[in-house]
C-alpha cells in the first residue's frame, strides 16, 4: 500500500485488467457485492479518509466473509490476481491524490451511454462506514462538510427511503454533471482535510486549517447546496448523520 511520501507511481489498470477485476467481483457470493464503479468509490473513501484502513478491515465488505464464488471456495490464483489488481488500483488513486493531479471517478455507462455515478457514490459512503466515527469531524464541520454534499446527493438519489432522496424529480444531465464534478473535487478536498490525521495516526485533530476552503460554509438550517430546495439538516446533512 502506498505511503504519503512514496515516489512509487503505479500503472493504471488497463481495460482488460478492469474487466478481470469486474468479473471476479461479479462472482463473489456476497449479497452486498460491488461492481467495479462502486469499488472505485469505496477505495477512494478509504484512501482519502482520516486514517489508514488495513485490508483485513475492509476485504470482507468487498468479497464477503467466506471468500466464496459460485458456491465453492475461490481459486487461490484468481484471488491473488484480484487482490493484486485491487491494491494497484488503490495505489493509483492514492498517487493521483498525493500528486495533486485531477482525480476522475471510474464510472460505468448505462444503456444510454450515461455515467450516472450513483454506484460510485454508494461505494464511497460504504467506505466511510468502515470507520464511521472517524468521519464525524468532517460530517459536522460547517466550514468543510460541503465537500460531502454531492457525494451524498448521488448516493441517495434513488434511495429506497424517500425521505433520504434529495430530489423528488429526475435531475437534468447538467445537474448530474455538476454533482459528479463536485464529488470528484470533494475527494481532493477530503484527502487534504484528513492528511494530518493520516500522518499522525489515531490522535484526534483539533483544528484543521492547512488548506483553503473550496466549499461554502453550511449551517444546519441553510438551503442544501445540492439544490434540492430542502434545508441542509433535512437533506444531505441527514444523510451524513446516519454515519454516527
Q: What does it look like?
A:
- The longest helix is centred in the middle third of the chain and has 24 residues, at 76-99.
- α2 (36-48) crosses α4.
- Helices cover 47% and strands 2% of the residues.
- The chain has helices at 15-27, 36-48, 55-63, 76-99, 118-128, 136-139, 149-155, 173-193, 195-200, 236-241, and strands at 68-69, 72-73.
- The two termini are 28 Å apart.
- It has a two-stranded antiparallel sheet with strand order 1-2.
- It has 244 residues and is an all-alpha fold.
Summarize the structure.
By secondary structure, this protein is mostly helical. It has helices at 15-27, 36-48, 55-63, 76-99, 118-128, 136-139, 149-155, 173-193, 195-200, 236-241, and strands spanning 68-69, 72-73. A hairpin with a 2-residue loop joins strand 1 (68-69) and strand 2.
Walk me through the topology.
Elements: H1 15-27, H2 36-48, H3 55-63, E1 68-69, E2 72-73, H4 76-99, H5 118-128, H6 136-139, H7 149-155, H8 173-193, H9 195-200, H10 236-241
Antiparallel strand pairs: 1-2
